[in-house]
Queue: 3 jobs
Job 1
Amino acid sequence: MRKGTEIKIELLKRGLTQAEIARTLKTTSTANEANLRVMISQLINGQRWYQTLADEINEQFDLNLERPEYLRPVYERQAA
């Protein structure tokens, strides 16, 4: 699993910002741009996990976001 800083560095190398990703996803999402920016920031920093949003980002921007172990459901962590 990659850390938030690694993802941010990759975004910088590609010339992308979180705001640009939010603007792109705004057309297909029911959330507004400001909410998307916050959700993307939380995803990248490992604060919250939004599976649908992560799937869209992975599909459109090929960032390969993965759910951190500590954000997995307890029954999944105990089974591992």
Job 2
Amino acid sequence: MSGQADWPPSAEALLPLLGLSESAEVVADAGAYLRPGRDPDEAGTLVARTAWLVADPERGVVLRSADRVLQVAVAAEGGR
């Protein structure tokens, strides 16, 4: 991928390519997936820099797009 294309691609466009389960969904409130007790300033910055967040509760995976990077994390039980 070159740096010429719009970034990030839409989450909906990527969903079929990610190999996630049928239960994967774009999360409207990225802050809901932050671990409890996170510093409020840090949490606000993370949410502000998040272009989109996809959660797959069936596979326990969360994908986040921010700053030309896709991050993948294993979600703890309870989705955080």
Job 3
Amino acid sequence: MPTLNQLVAEQVKIISGAKAALEAAQKQPPTTAATIATRESTIVDLKTRMADLAEAKATIAARLDRQIAGYQAQVATLEKQIEEDKKRAGEQPTAPRTVKRKGKEK
């Protein structure tokens, strides 16, 4: 059975080897496959963002169209009311308006 010192020495040897391998890998430039995979991942992410923005654009456009239609209906209703009021006003004589003057009277 190995002693505690032997186990620790063995673990230090394994950790040192792993550390050296990691440092060597970090010094190496990324492989072509890794670069391609990164770019493909970026493309997928960008396409997802574009789809989300397109959906948001459609939702906002639909909401604006509904608001515009509502305003157009209000304008049409008010225009009809104005025309009816003008017809009624033409049938009835209106009282002259009195103008109140402010200030000193001489």
